[in-house]
Design goal:
By secondary structure, the chain is α+β, with helices and mostly antiparallel strands. It contains 6 helices and 11 strands. The strands form 2 sheets. The chain has a 6-stranded antiparallel barrel with strand order 1-7-10-9-8-11. It has a 3-stranded antiparallel beta sheet with strand order 2-4-5, with no helix packed on it. A hairpin with a 6-residue loop joins strand 8 and strand 9. The longest helix has 31 residues. The protein is rod-shaped, with a radius of gyration of 41 Å.
Amino acid sequence: MGRRATLWAWLMLAGCGPSGVDYAVGTLERERIELVAETAEPLLAFAVEEGDEVDAGALLLRQDPARARLQLARAEAELARAEAAFMEARHGPRSETVAQARARLEAAEAEVATVERELARASALLPEHFATEEQVDLLEGRRDAARARRDEARSALEELRAGTRSEVLAQQESARDAAAAAVAELALTLSRSELRAPVDAVVESLPLEPGERPQPGQTVVVLRATGRTFARIHVPEPLRAGLEPGAAAEVRVDGRSEPLEGRLRWISGEAAFTPYYALTQHDRSRLSYLAEVDLTGPGAADLPVGVPVEVRFPQVPNLRTR
């Protein structure tokens, strides 16, 4: 309830003494729902107008989905790559890969043998001066390089034969799961480019126009739910002690000769105005407690929001008789 209605309730209660307060006042309400934009993409079109009645799940508006679609396609490609890498790590290398590694090792071993023979021949010819020191040094360098390549090829083949380490497999699995989560998140973002009604409601307000770019979190549609009708009231302090949630209520509305049936759903445990310990016994009757009364009887759905109501609780004794 707004400030004006709150002040009205306060003035009504302030004029009553402890012996005259036997009802609570307030206004008729329905849940107000503000739907916000998830992204800053332009609003393409509204599927509803202000005042339209919509069912839960009905389309309300569309935002431009082009950027979200591109991001989702990129994420799906990354997921496919991560999935392939994980499957390769889990199943181990293909037989063709192992054969290639074995062939590289055999070639490296052959190169080592060739260079070692050339070095041995040059070393034997060195005393006869048929070879030079430079030739021997060059062949020793080639031999060492060939041995290094052979050792590298042997290590690569042994690694393939041993299979993927558990740590590498866990890393690949984590990368795949992260890529899958990114796809799910972007798919959700894409789905939210179409805003739908969460409940049966009436479109109360459309603050923006097609073509505008809302900020993320900015309200783009305001709905008034049609399901639950309730009275938001201020219960005077003399009535508060005798009330608990579930209490039966009679709700009177201007223009209706008979009261509507209701039930107290919730009542605040704290007073809305000056703390009780700062008031005299006379002034404590001016305290009020915010509460909500659900209208359970027929006829409530057709009533407009905001009309004043007067609520009495039959099980609470009439204070005028005290």
